[in-house]
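Colleagues,

Please find the record for the four-part complex below.
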Amino acid sequence: MSTPASSINESNDPPFARPTMQDVANAAGVSLKTVSRVVNNEPRVDDRTRERVHQAIAQLGFRRNDIARSLRQGQASSTIGLIIEDIANPFYSSIARGLERVAQKYNYMLIISNSEENALRERELVNALLSRRVEGLCIVPAGSDHSYLSAELRMGTPFIFLDRPPMQLQTDTIVLDNRGGTRQAIKHLLSYGHRRIAVIQGDPRVYTGAERIAGYYETLAEHGIPCDETLIYSNCDDARQAQQATHTLMNLPQPPSAIFSTSNRISIAVLRALRSYTFQPAFVGFDDFDLADMLPVPVTVIAHDPAEMGARAGEILFARLAGSNVPVQQTIVPTQLIVRGSGELRPSQA
Amino acid sequence: MSTPASSINESNDPPFARPTMQDVANAAGVSLKTVSRVVNNEPRVDDRTRERVHQAIAQLGFRRNDIARSLRQGQASSTIGLIIEDIANPFYSSIARGLERVAQKYNYMLIISNSEENALRERELVNALLSRRVEGLCIVPAGSDHSYLSAELRMGTPFIFLDRPPMQLQTDTIVLDNRGGTRQAIKHLLSYGHRRIAVIQGDPRVYTGAERIAGYYETLAEHGIPCDETLIYSNCDDARQAQQATHTLMNLPQPPSAIFSTSNRISIAVLRALRSYTFQPAFVGFDDFDLADMLPVPVTVIAHDPAEMGARAGEILFARLAGSNVPVQQTIVPTQLIVRGSGELRPSQA
DNA sequence: TTGTAGGCGTTATCAC
DNA sequence: GTGATAACGCCTACAA
């Protein structure tokens, strides 16, 4: 009933309409502009007027409409966006947390969306967020061509790419030291006498995968170790495939003396599969994970700090929003070998 | 240069201004309204006109401003909010994922914010989100008085409370079967002959904590087992305190034969502390956690499905948005005992 | 100290 | 089919 000319009044429409500044102004007997001044804590308002307005606000339950505000003010939505693959994955949720902390510091809200590793959906999400006028966007890209962002980039919207660089686009990027981390792992295993080091990896065409496997090849080559391709299993992001690969490896006439896994999810699947063998190969995994230190053989890993990645992305983003014009930067976040036991087993048939 | 009367042109202002429908209209030689029609896929537009407009849109890099759109359309921001304690906690990130899936289904965006268990911050976030005109809000409450939401609730904004009910407010709520789950755990331990069952818990004044410890007391009472208060340790959400409590318990003249922990974080701390003892008490924890099955003694837990909680919250929220007027509902999500080994150890001094 | 006029970018209404 | 005009709720600029 309170909404003047709405459709036939269904019984569920709200009994109280949302008040506007004009409503508050009417209730307080002042002009709309005075209410605006009070709401925004502007100085030149009589204390008694201010008080009356505050009462009207409280009584009506008025709440400033930030949508209208940001429309008038230009592009100040005070919102940034984050696109990741899956918030339920601890790697991404840590990134989100790091970024949110920074956003909070600058009094910004964060909209998080999951691309589910789908390039098309990523693009839809980017468009939806830009249409909502987020002021900047952090993206863990799933797609392989980001040239569609170039117009938006020229208009001043900052984009920060996380974990993987953009393709066909020049913008700030934060990646792990994928190659260096893998080199650490492989050198570590070599130093314990391993020569047959298997790799169970995800998709080697994805940036992180390509870097990691390149680190493996490089390190073997530098040490003059011939590479046995039968020890390399790809596309094992799925737990089932990783376990299958582990079983295949362990049943080779000459099984590997060590296994390197390129991600935490693969690591866990591999370790699960290894439980059924008495002979335990040495093991090092890329990415740390909860309880790695609590397993029967504590797990040696290449660790890094995803929350730090998120936080750095945020700082770069806000620097850009503040007008920073420094050249596009690529930040490389270091990795760290954490020695726990599984990586220090020696080859039995040395 | 392109912005007419802005302040002195600093070198970093965007070289291209963001085009509006009017710009597109000028470029295409049509009226603004026609552009609007094309953008919104309205039917009565000549195909040739439509084509010209599309070209202008592509050429200028036009993107509809959803802020202006939703201002004009009333309250259709197509955005909902979620307030949790910490997105880096798997319990909450799973909730977020479940909710986001539903939001996605209805073509809504999700804004996630972390209250950090701070009632004041929770309230600030609620206000910020409502000012941004989210159409509904899911909250894992940190505060202890939500009457401040009643005006907003009357205006039709749906609020769904997750994991803990609201205080001083009647609205839809989704909680775990905290009491029932704890009863399952304690009965399970009793059935294996345990009579001295310690509890390491968080804050017993928080709703979930209160329900869980009540389930413990209840079950002991029903079985005629006297309750030994020296076996109950509270406020152990911090890992250090949980470990300390474990050590104290294990060094009692007569240590407990079983330990029940009220959350996954506590469980992990307790299990870490237990590693230094040869005698292993039976153990059951509330909440499942990754790798619980991989520990030297696989961990028996009371499991549940946080993503399902998030999804259900979402469905109720969207039902409310669609006008559902059914009475306020409290949904109780069931828990499940997962038997893995640690809960099936028998008391040694039986 | 307070108020008026105009516009932010879009959609709704109604005329052509 | 297409276009002028008036909102949406707020803020900026300027006037009183």
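Chain B is about 40% helix and 15% strand.

Comments are welcome before we finalize the supplementary table.
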